[in-house]
Every structure is written in C-alpha cells, then in structure tokens.
C-alpha cells in the first residue's frame, strides 16, 4: 500500500510515517503544505492519502480543499482526514457528499494503533471510517429528527455504529450479538425512519444522515 501523508506538524507527520513503515506500508512521501501534498499525489500516485484538516497558510480548511483537489485529479482516491478536534461541518458534509473511500479520525486515535490501521484499511477497501468520538459529540449537540424517537436503545446503538462506517459483521462483534440480530435491527431502523426499498438513495447512508442531519452547521 503506497501512502502520502500531509500535515504541517513535523512530529505527528513523521510519527505516523514511522508507524506505517513499521507495519510494512510504503510511505512514498510526506508533505507540510497543500502544494507539496498535491505534487506528491501527482508524482507517486498513492493508494491512500492521510491529510490534516488545518494546514498553512490560514490553518482553516486548506487540508480539506487539497484532499478534494487530489480526488478530482485521481477519482476515487481513498482519503483519511485527521483533525485535532471535532469539525462538525466537515464530518456532516463528508457523508452528505458521498462517503466511499473516506475517513475522518481525531488525531488522538493515531496512538491506538490497531484502530488507526483498521480505519485506514477500511477506507482503502472502499468503506467509511468515522471516529466514534465525532459521532458521539454530534449526537449530543443535535436535535433529533422526531422519527428517531421511535428507535429502541439497541437500534440507536446499531445506527451509531453504522455512522462510524462499520459493516454488519463488525457491528455484531461490537455489540456481542449475531449478524442476524443486526440485520433485524437495521430492517426495523429503515421501517421506523420511513425508508422503503424503492428509495433511490442508499438506505444505509440515508439513515445515518437522518441521524446527523439536524446538527447545526457552523457559520
């Protein structure tokens, strides 16, 4: 797996590179600015990129913009975004804009090596990886869709794990239930949220968006 890392924090950037190389991953380039990051993407054609949200010169959303540009140049490029804290607007837009091959983790998650590597692999394989803390904070701050009040506590647990990007097998393992039970809970969630099999949108993604859509966007 060929990886490009972009972060203006030298210690974090090189620490992540060292961690990945220790796992026999090929870190082909590291970058400390959006410009050097995009140049590395063009030159090395990586299998996945890891990008900080905030980068020079303004340290606002340059990293996100660079990641969007990288995916424009290389459609479908897996992107794992790192942030020091929860960026509500980006986390919500990540799902709303299509979540394939995208991940959003808090930087503290890097220290939990197994979870970090699992998230990276999930993104490379075409899935989604949303930090559990991001989901938790968004839910605490939200004003839920009234339809969500129909869900049982267990169904909300399942939907929360769906929002993190976990598949049914992983959800079953996390909740110590069978996959059959997870399938049943998901069917119930779809029914209670009025999502029918004839809906054009992916019902799984739509259910997660219903769960997060009422989070107020920062202006």
Automatic annotation (TrEMBL):
Domain of life: Bacteria
Domain Response regulatory: 2-122
Residues recorded with modification 4-aspartylphosphate: 52
Signal peptide bounds: none
Annotated Pfam families: GerE, Response_reg
Annotated HTH luxR-type domain residues: 144-211
Keyword Ligase tagged: no
Keyword set, alphabetical order: DNA-binding, Phosphoprotein, Transcription, Transcription regulation
Record PANTHER family: TRANSCRIPTIONAL REGULATORY PROTEIN NARL-RELATED (PTHR43214:SF24), TWO-COMPONENT RESPONSE REGULATOR (PTHR43214)
Official protein name in the record: Response regulator
């Amino acid at each position: 797996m060929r990886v490009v890392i972009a972060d203006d924090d030298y210690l974090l950037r090189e620490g992540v590179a060292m961690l990945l190389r220790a796992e026999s991953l090929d870190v082909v380039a590291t970058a400390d600015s959006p410009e050097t990051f995009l140049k590395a993407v063009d030159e090395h054609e990586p299998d996945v990129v890891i990008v900080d949200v905030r980068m020079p010169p303004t340290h606002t959303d340059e990293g996100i913009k660079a990641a969007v540009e990288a995916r424009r140049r290389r459609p479908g490029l897996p992107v794992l975004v790192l942030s020091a804290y929860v960026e509500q607007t980006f986390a919500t837009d990540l799902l709303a804009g299509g979540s394939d091959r995208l991940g959003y983790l808090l930087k503290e998650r890097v220290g939990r090596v197994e979870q970090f590597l699992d998230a990276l692999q999930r993104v490379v394989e075409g899935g989604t990886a949303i930090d559990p803390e991001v989901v938790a904070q968004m839910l605490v701050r939200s004003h839920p869709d009234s339809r969500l009040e129909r869900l049982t506590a267990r169904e909300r647990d399942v939907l929360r794990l769906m929002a993190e990007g976990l598949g049914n097998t992983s959800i079953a393992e996390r909740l110590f239930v069978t996959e059959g039970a997870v399938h049943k809970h998901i069917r119930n969630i779809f029914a209670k949220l009025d999502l029918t099999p004839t809906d054009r949108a992916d019902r799984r993604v739509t259910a997660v968006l219903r769960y997060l859509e009422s989070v107020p966007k920062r202006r």
